[in-house]
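Incident review: delayed structure delivery

Summary: a single-chain prediction request sat in the queue longer than the usual turnaround. Root cause was a stuck worker, restarted by the on-call engineer. No data loss occurred. The affected request and its eventual output are reproduced below so the record is complete for anyone auditing the incident later.

Affected input:
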Amino acid sequence: MDYEVDRKTQWIADELQTLQESGLFNQIPVIESAMGGRIRIGGKELINFCANDYLGLANHPRLQQAARDAIEKYGIGPGAVRSIAGTNVLHQQLEERLASFKGADACITFQSGFTANLATIPALVGRGDVIFSDRLNHASIIDGCRLSRATIVAYEHNDVDDLQEKIRQTTEYGRRLIVTDGVFSMDGDIAPLPAIYEVANEHGIMLMVDDAHGEGVLGRNGRGIVDHFDLHGKIDVEIGTMSKAFGVVGGIVAGKRVIIDWLRQRGRPFLFSSAMTIPDTAACLEAVDLLESSGELVQALWANAKLMKAEMQKMGFDIGHSETPIIPLMLGDVKLARQFSKELLENGVFAMAIGYPTVPEGKARVRVMNTAAHSQADLEEALGTFQLVGRKLGVID
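Output delivered after worker restart:
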């Protein structure tokens, strides 16, 4: 691609050229339909394995109707930040319902899960403090840790013994925080949260878990990782999102009331950025209603994931060590992963290649995201396509 540049911006054009030549330039597809198990891109219908819409709620008629009803009653925008313009009754209701759903003392919502991390970590620790962070934590956790200006001590992925050792070695600190993802989005494995809690409790360290990919997936009717491990009242802070399994958008922080009240006073994205829109908030409320009333969608998600995993392993694919509906199709080479994704697209399946810097170099993959929105026919057709492409590219026999 040719860019108009001057001396100030030539370096950017050079970097973009390098990305293009290395196969790392990110081309974002344009979706021409509603989100679902099947979508339309470039006029072509595709089976969709890219969305984090685990339960198929992004286009659910009940959520659509709730959003329409809320617009009729309350309009669309919140007007300004909640601490200045006041908070709409729907925001208050959503936070109360989410706290009850997750079995937490209290809850506060943000514009996204990313901003929830950016708000929470710097509000809890700062310069002179220490954060013990899993080496594979999400970028939003990493950025929140950097913003806090606390000392960041990375421990090896899901390695509780290494966490213990890093705590033993770190003797200078003010406050301390352990932070981990609940479900790791690129590999699909689950943090050993009970063991991490025991370490945090032993040393008197605050514990925070980001459950973005556990919401709607783990626990009773999708209540998340804290419910999954029955750790209610033991985890200080649980971060979540409503942009994945809830099918809408927004961030959640649930936990001890003293922390939630503190975030209302010192969580910068809460204080300096407008809240979720009215229809988004209403749709999230409806999603909570759906999950509270039935676990059917969660069960369908896991049934689809179990089928896909079993059949892909039979074909000879390396699908890593996922414990969740996320399937990392491990390919190693980023160019191979991108070619695999391209071949899938040409044969009616949308599953994106993931490479560096999202995953380490040499660990490129095609990430397959199962949802409850996929029918049996979708899965059977997709499995045939994965086998066809895998054989064509020499990935399987």
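Verification: The chain has two domains: 23-52+295-392, 61-293.
Action items: add queue-age alerting; document worker restart procedure.
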